[in-house]
Amino acid sequence: MIINMFKKIFGTKAARDLRRMRPLVDRVNELEEEYQKLSEEQLKAKTGEFKERLKNGETLDDIMCEAFAVVKNACRRNMGQPISVCDQAMTWEMIPYDVQVLGAIALHRGNIAEMATGEGKTLVATMPLYLNALTGRNCQLVTVNDFLARRDSEWMGTIYEYLGLTVGCLQSEMRPQERRDMYSRDITYGTNSEFGFDYLRDMGMALDADQMVQRDHYYAIIDEIDSILIDEARTPLIISGPVAVSTHQFDKMQPLVDGLVEKQNALNARLVKEGREALAKEDISDEAKRDALIKLLQVRFSMPTHKQLMRVLENSEILKAVDKLEMEVRSDNNRGMLQDVQDDMFFVMDERQNEADLTEKGRNAISPDDPDMFVMPDLLEELHKIDTDDSLDEAGKVEAKAEFQKEFSEKSERLHNISQLLKAYCLFEKDVHYVVQDNKVMIVDEHTGRLRPGHRFSDGLHQALEAKERVEIERETQTLATITIQNYFRLYEKLSGMTGTAETEANEFHQIYKLDVIVIPTNKPCIRIDKEDVIYKTRREKFNALVDEVEKRHQTGQPILLGTVSVDDSEVLSRMLKRKNIPHNVLNAKNHQSESETIAQAGRKGGVTVATNMAGRGTDIKLGEGVADLGGLCVIASARHDSRRIDRQLRGRCSRQGDPGISMFYVALEDNLMRLFGSDRIVKIMERFGMEEGEELQHPWLTKSIETAQRRVEQHHFSIRKRTLEFDDVMNKQREIIYGQRKDILLTDKPKDILFGVVEEVVDYFIQQASVTDADSKKPFDVDKFIGSLSVIFPIELPPGEVVVDPNTGLPDPDALIKRVTDRIESAYDARNKHMDDEERIWLERRMALEPLDRLWQEHLYEMDHLRSSIYLRTYAQKDPLVEYKNEAFKVFEGLLDRIHMETARSLFTASVESVSEFEDFFGNMPQELVHEQFDQFGDVDYDGSGVQQEMPENVVFYKDLPPEIQAQILEQARADGIPDDVVKQMPIALTPPEEPEPEYYEEEPEGDDFVPFTYRRDEPKVGPNDPCPCGSGKKYKKCCG
Questions:
Q1: Core-most of 253, 267, 410, 856, by most CB within 10 Å?
Q2: Which alpha helices (DSSP H) does 925-991 contain, by range?
Q3: What is the overall mean pLDDT for the chain?
Q4: pLDDT greater than 70 at residue 996
């Protein structure tokens, strides 16, 4: 109350910011009038003038108004000029309004500009991008898809290029050389995935500075920032490769779980029938009524969306009674009652927590002959029993431990697979949460309704869905490089964004990204009519009333955009519209190919478009001729979304730039939002008025009650994202250290200095290990232990007499000893590599520094994945998972750094050009998988345009997973080729690769039956990577034409 009073008196921060920006807009307009007098050459020369002034010490804020005025004048001079955008002829018809200049100032200052649909956010971004690009650093605009990136870069590129700046656009099919060219330009457009994956390849996988494509992370404007930084905030960008061995048991467990679900369905049908018939009796006793309600509650516990149950709960009295009983059962005062109620079911599920679990009855149904199948032994206790078993020798104990751990892992995997299969069957609906296309399970974005090709549910859930739908179960993958969207965009020095719906998430933007939301007024007053929500008891009543409303408005010729929250809803409504003979277009996750075109035509007279709530985002709907006289576009939503901003986005599709329009929402008490988070107030009102089937409720108080339910969901989701960020920050700090080391290695001209910095660290570690901490010891420093440790890593001889110790303390001078030992190691190293020229030596040194770092970091990511997935078990010991995760992660990372130092030091005298080349070639050809597409390490995109991941070779294993006899053969062959054993043991092995036929080349198009293809044969000997290049440059082949 007090806060609202102060807001009325002093206004909000955003309103005060707007008042302070108004004089700047006036100044821009004054300057733009002056620039109209300049010649075209004088206006274009302003770009060079601004750059020079920045070099001489002026700031971007000093020249902001002048730069914005130049952009505005450039737009004016291009009016009526023909341009080409996405191969379509267009005419430039835009000059920034005053409100667009306001938005540009907000973006330049690092804020989020909330601008209504149709206010020209694409043009707004040109002003701050032009201004910040004058620094000479790469500025970026982030879009939600490739089409918008290409469209906006070509469209706005008209102004950038007119003023002398260069503009580029990232597309998914580009090669590394093309990407480097795009980043070399002043302004680059692209999607968040393209920018993020380029960062991962640069920082996590590049083997040379020439393979890096990005320049830096200076300034970015994120279009539809709420979609990217809120909806996709927790989405990790992952480059992954296949694991050595697949351990899942989904194919074996699926028939068992499938049968269990059928049994549960049959049981639920019987319970609902018995409960409904009992409650229908007029003379039912209290005890019989309670038994009937318990049966309905049991069905709700196992399958809360069971269709027969939903029909029974349409009766408000029964619904209220079941709710009251559930509260009683879950009460702490009735401990044990919950388990008694659930024991009759095969499994139970919790929709809010997204969890499903077997009951004792379910466990017996799956495994009637093996009661111990679901009993996990105590790991520490069992290992202790083996250690204390006197009947076993050391070899026997090792074998017994290995056998027990194998059995333990198989049982853990089996239980995990069953749990994920239950979730797949009970919590994830086909055509709602996912669709099946081309024998693949494709995720449907819950906010946009778009397919997310390449995305996979984590923790084995996606494989469970593949087993459920009986499509091919893809192999598990191992993470090679990863970063979340949240953490990627926190890398930028300066970040801003624009959207039509950010105000409801202002608190989250400020807390996580330190971004303030400024609501920019519309250029023309919005005259949209927002009707109160229309509320029905059931979905059936709601859909019938909605279709009747569509039919009535369609007869007048008014265009209608019908928004849905799922593929299932859109298809149900489409069938109902067909029965009414109403022509319409359907746009959902199954047919998004022509999204922009379909949405753009939604404003034509008589048009009816069924689309998910955020379909066509970024595309304006322009009204057809005569539509304004009919009341404009009518937006009808079939349900309220969990998030208020998604609903606001849908409302905003009509009434752009002062056009008329109307919006209305149809809600049912059966909708997920109302069922899980809704208020009891609506149910009570319906009971009080004794509403009959088909009757509706409509009142401002009810609309506010629904918005309150949405706030609860938003707060719930925010708490999850914030908690996730705290976990991600742990990995993010580790990533910054590792990627910082990689960047130093890639960019330095003297990798030898880095290598011997590591050597000094290792020698210092050996000195500390050899120093005896016991005060009673007669030898505070163990010289023999120190020399022995050195000899294991470095092939040098260090006589004990050269280790000088202080006679008083018995300890050596660590700095002097480190220098003496390091000098000797360096002498031996130089002698070993004296035959190499400088170029070859630097190449080898850089690989020696990168190889152990990359290999061990990837193993570390795999280990951290397991730690993250298991850390929540510590809650059973009353421990905070986040604190435990931080402690464990620190220990693991500390060990990682030590191993990297040791492996790097060891490689000084074991690595050779040939061995490193072999490893690099294999590493570069490993199958890798991205979130959206699959790429080679730095090569071509392996993408067929269907949005489906390509198959990964299954012949890739690791040395440690091979049988001993195969390991021996590989070692023997590797030694013959001069590859050190320690390198081979860490290499992934490609077994029996398919033979590739020689390519066939045709001189001309084949004609007739006499055409015989000829096979190309090499006339000259094959040129090796280290041979002189045949072109005569004098360089090695791999550094020249190779």
A1: 253
A2: 964-976, 981-984
A3: 80
A4: no
